[in-house]
Every structure is written in structure tokens, then in C-alpha cells.
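An instance follows:
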Amino acid sequence: MNNPKPVIIFDVNETLMDMAPLKNKINALLGSSEGFRIWFGMLLQYSLVDNCSNNYHDFTAIADATLQMAAKALNAEVAPAQRKEALQTIKELSAYDDVPEGLQLLKDNGFRLATLTNSPAATLNAQLKHAGLTHFFEATLSIDSIKQYKPAVETYRWAAEQLSIKISEAILVAAHGWDVAGALQAGMKAAFIERKGQSLYPLSAEPSFTAKDIAALAKQLIVQYK
């Protein structure tokens, strides 16, 4: 009897998309090699402030607000137009080289594919179109619909509902330890992609799968779910 295939749900930024152009732009704008790391950490932190305070601003608004904060922290003079121009880069990213191969392998072997991202739907759709990935996914889910940022457990459960599956029938694929931790806590399986500079959260459960990239993960899943 065949092992039933799970639905594979992908995070987008840093999992599928190479953020290097955005990192370089933010570092240059803030005049620091640590600029992107500081800003992105703030972006995630203040998205969770919205979750915890029963408030909601979309990810683009929080990105702009935290870029202002990062500039102040680093004593950088950054005009609103400069922030806007830099943040537009997120819509113009390329996929990592391993991504099209991995997604095609999964599609060819009968896996259902979807995305789940903190970015607004308009940003997500622009990203996938620019990177030539739209056709791989049956659903492109954004937390903008539920207004709860990952890693809130409600968000992963909502995603499973949208796909008409039990949460245990999905695998969340992400390059972030916090995203993997949230999915596991919600009852999903999870796969960690070992992108450069990323690590798992040591206090969370171990993911079901770990792979160096999407193509390598696809090969694991094809063997696992023959």
C-alpha cells in the first residue's frame, strides 16, 4: 500500500527566494554590514508584537516602520523614498538555483504544493511571478487573510483548513528555526532547509526532515512517500 503523500507547504523568503540583493541594499542603506540582520530581527519581533497585542499591520508596513527604527539605532539618515525603494527589492528576488528542480520533482511525483508566508498577497504574487514559480503551487497562502503572523499556531491550522486537509497531513518547509518550531507546535510535520546562516531552535522538537536545499529535500520525500 502506498504511503499517502502529504501536502508540502513552503515558506517563501530565504526558503525559496535568495534574499542576497535585499540584504546588500539594506546594508548599504544603513551603512552597516549588520544592517539587514538588525532590521530583519526587528521585523519579525514587531510582527509578533501585533500578534500579542491583538493589532494588525501588514508585513510591508511593519517592514517600513522597523527600517526606520533600525536606521535610528545605527545613526543612519534614511529618507522615506529610500526606504520604499529598498523594500521594493523583495518583489524582484530570484529563486535559489535548487528551487525549480526541487519543486518540479515534487510535482512530477504527485505532491500537492502550496506557500504560506508572512508577506501580503500582492507581494507574494509578485515574488512568485518574478521568479517564475507561480505554476508550481495550487494555493498561495498569505497570513494577510487571517491576520496572525507565523509562528502563531493558529496560522498553520488555518493553512491546513484552506487546503482541506488535517494538519498532520502537511509538511511545512522553511529555512527558519522559528517557523519550523511553530509548525511542529501546531501539529504539522516540518522540514528544515539548511540555508547559510540559519539554524534550528534548540528548545523545539526536531523536524521530520532536514536537507541542504529544496532539491535534496524533494529526493528524500519521494523515497519516504513511495
Remarks:
- Residues 87 and 107 are 32 Å apart (CA to CA).
- Strands lie at 7-10, 113-117, 139-142, 170-174, 189-193, 209-211.
